[in-house]
Amino acid sequence: MDHYRSLLKNNADEYQSTRQANFIAALATWKLTDSSNQIQLANEDLSDETYDTMYNSACVLLSSAQYAEAEAKLRKAEGEKENFLIDCLKFLFSSMSTGIGRRRRYD
Predict the structure, then answer these.
(1) Residue-range domain boundaries for the chain
(2) I need a labelling partner for 91 at 20 to 30 A (CA). Which of 1, 27, 39, 54 fits?
(3) Residue 105: is its pLDDT beyond 60?
(4) Model confidence at 64: pLDDT above 60
(5) Which residues contact residue 52 at a Cβ distance below 8 angstroms, ignoring those fewer than 6 apart?
(6) How far apart are the C-alpha atoms of 88 and 94, rounded to whole Å?
(7) pLDDT band at 79, cuts 50/70/90?
(8) What integer best gives the mean pLDDT of the chain?
(9) At what angle do helices 16-33 and 2-10 cross, to 10 degrees?
């Protein structure tokens, strides 16, 4: 676990949020598959940076029987995904109204 934390701490590039999401997913899986293991979570282990990290953090909380916190995290993730979809739709509609992406008809 410490090696993974070190990897997250010592690397910063466009894949950082993906690494963070995968780390949190690994934490959740580890806690669910090995109930005897007492994983000590650090404050920076769980993240609200992206939808994926929020969702995976909620899974860690669920595996620790922190149901109220997990539900709050899942609701926040749901809101994040809704905001992302709304932004995508706005971009799509604005692109259509300005002619970006329109196909020309040739008679």
Answers:
(1) 2-98
(2) 54
(3) no
(4) yes
(5) 17, 18, 21
(6) 10
(7) very high
(8) 82
(9) 170
